[in-house]
Structure formats: C-alpha cells, structure tokens
Amino acid sequence: MAGRPLIGVSTYLESGARWGVWELEAALLPAGYPRLVQRAGGLAVMLPPDAPEHAAAAVARLDGLVIAGGPDVEPARYGAEPDPRTGPPARARDAWELALIEAALRADVPLLGICRGMQLLNVALGGTLVQHLDGHAEVVGVFGRHTVVPVPGTLYAGVVPKETSVPSYHHQAVDRLGEGLVVCAHATDGTVEAVELPSAAWALGVQWHPEMDEDVRVVRALVEAAS
Ligand code: MN
Questions:
Q1: How many H helices and E strands in the chain?
Q2: How many angstroms separate the CA atoms of 87 and 82, rounded?
Q3: In angstroms, what is the span from residue 122 Cα to ligand 1's centroid?
Q4: CB hemisphere CA count around 194 (13 angstroms)
Q5: How many Å lie between the centroid of ligand 1 and the Cα of residue 2?
Q6: Residue pLDDT, tens place only, 140-162
Q7: pLDDT tens, 56-108?
Q8: Residues annotated catalytic, as ranges
Q9: Is 160 exposed, middle or buried (0-12, 13-18, 19+ CB in 10 A)?
Q10: What domains, with CATH codes, occur in the chain?
Q11: Share in percent of the chain as helix, strand, coil (round to 5)
C-alpha cells in the first residue's frame, strides 16, 4: 500500500462540551486516540455517529477501524434490564458503532475495540456484560493501572507476550462471551481484559486504554494488519 493506512476512530457525541467561548454539542474524541493511531504509523480519521445504513460505505473507505471508549452499552442491546449503576444510554452511538463492527467483520477490515468498543464487539456477537464491577475505576475521572496477563497461543499474546501494566477505567466487563470470541488476556482478579475473534481477518478488543499509555504495540499490530 502507498502511504499510511487510514484508520477510522468512532467518536463521542456530547452536549455541553466547552472550548474557547463555546459550549455546544460536539462530536469529540480525547486526543490520545488519534495520537495513538499516528504514533503507530496510521492516518487517523474520526467517525461521528451517523445512520447505521451508512456504516458499510464508511468501512469500505477504511483500512482499519477503532471503536473508542465511552458510555455504557444500553443493556437492552444484550437482553438485560438496566442495573441502577449503569449509566444513561447513548443510543446513536450504540446503533452506529454496532453497525460499524458488523460491517468491518463482513468486509475483513481489521478492527480494534477499546473499552466500550470491546464490550460492543462482544454484544455484536451475542455476548452479555457484567453491569458493574469494583476495582477497575477506583477514582472518578482518574485512570488507574493494573496488570493484564496474556493467554498463550492467542493473537494478543503474539503482540504482547508477557504480562504488562495497563491504564484502566471501566466499571463493566464481558460476562458471557459472544459467538466465536476467545479470551486472550485476564486481569489478576479474573476479569476478562481482552478478546479476539479467530474467524475474523484481524479483530481484537482490549478492556483497557492504550490511548493513555506509552505502549503502542496493540495499535501497531492493528496498523500492520491494515497495511
Ligand atoms: Mn480492567
């Protein structure tokens, strides 16, 4: 391929964002995400929520896809009643990002789900989520760190062969695995921290936040798969 692979990153859609003199609804993304793609050798483009029927056309123009972190997935998406500790739904994001994931898997476009993006990958394949767990987001608004341990023989273990410390901020996690998914890393408390889909061209989800870390190995692997 000529040039850097084009990596689409899904965005937030938030009211009350503030910059300069403005306080407006905004399609936004922490700058760590595009910087991570850029540091890993890709060209980053943002994918704000759109009608799900446009997802395949968007994915067709991409070499790789990142589904970013964000609000809790609406529990109705995996057939559950909302737990009182589950946050309000972001239905436009849920619909758009689920359609992006399905389009990427159908078109063999390499896919990385980060935090919420990993949970959506699981839900897209019929899996369910734990709606609240303790110990992985201990201070509100502050990323913690914890250890993740790779499962030998997986795609993930090929990228990061040894246990490593990662930035963490989540209060939900994978419960029942989606169809065809394999767990490829755990936290030391047993929480599922990464999943992959061996039947896909390249599909990985990580429960932590590589965009907050120095370590670019996971996203470099995505960029290489997209090249
Ligand atoms: Mn964690």
A1: 6, 13
A2: 9
A3: 16
A4: 29
A5: 37
A6: 899 999 999 999 999 999 999 99
A7: 999 999 999 999 999 999 999 999 999 999 999 999 999 999 999 999 999 99
A8: 115, 209, 211
A9: buried
A10: 6-226 (3.40.50.880)
A11: 30, 30, 45
